[in-house]
Structure to design on (238 residues):
């Protein structure tokens, strides 16, 4: 905020949210804090790049005026987003009853003995306001990001949506096969465990018979070895 003798100016920086190929505007608020009529004029170092409305005017005592500065469409970004453009706001005491049409360049000529208040304003580029992400909002609400509808009603299909949908469908189709394989392997394992328990019981019976007969026939030992090998094979396969 600038506090001169005649006008209070806010802000002292013209902040433009820079975007390519788009007109951008910002405003100044002028407050006449004096008891006199005040004429003002806005100048810039780059008049082809900006338009100012109004660029001249007369303010009655203790009135407020809004000045809108519009930057024309830019085709390329400035280096490092820095701007060297400047504005100069001049103000002088005017005769009562004067209007904006009566403002002349001679009124702001210091060489003619006029007392002119001046305030320099610089231009600053700021990042544009970020737009809300439609895809992110859709995901939060449970919608698929595969397609979106533009303002004119056309459907925008994302390039990877068909591939992802196809892969998801194929994965779903393979789930029953996996479940069936797991179920079959589980049944085979249970059968092997039951067979193992049965063979262990029979082997224990044979051991008891061997102890009772006080001998260990060769055939019995061979059968016991084969049973052990079979049990190990079944357990390893399960």
């Amino acid at each position: 905020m600038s506090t001169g003798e005649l006008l209070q100016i806010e802000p002292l920086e013209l902040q433009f949210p820079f975007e390519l190929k788009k007109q951008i505007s910002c405003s100044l608020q002028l407050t006449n804090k004096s008891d006199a009529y005040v004429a003002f004029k806005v100048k810039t170092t780059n008049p082809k790049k900006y338009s100012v409305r109004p660029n001249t005017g007369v303010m009655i005592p203790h009135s407020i005026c809004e000045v809108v500065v519009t930057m024309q469409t830019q085709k390329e970004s400035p280096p490092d987003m820095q701007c060297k453009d400047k504005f100069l706001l001049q103000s002088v005491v005017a005769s009562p009853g004067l209007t904006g049409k009566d403002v002349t360049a001679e009124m702001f000529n210091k060489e003619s003995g006029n007392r002119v208040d001046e305030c320099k304003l610089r231009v600053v580029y700021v990042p544009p306001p970020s737009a809300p992400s439609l895809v992110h909002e859709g995901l939060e609400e449970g919608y698929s990001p595969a397609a979106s509808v533009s303002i004119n009603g056309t459907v925008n299909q994302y390039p990877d949506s068909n591939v992802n949908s196809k892969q998801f469908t194929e994965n779903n189709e393979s789930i029953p096969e996996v479940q069936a394989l797991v179920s079959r392997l589980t049944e085979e394992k249970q059968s092997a465990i039951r067979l193992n328990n049965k063979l262990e019981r029979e082997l224990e019976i044979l051991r008891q018979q061997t102890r009772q007969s006080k001998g260990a026939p060769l055939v019995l030992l061979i059968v016991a070895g084969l049973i052990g090998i079979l049990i190990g094979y079944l357990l390893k396969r399960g």
Remarks:
- Residues 161-213 form the longest helix (53 residues).
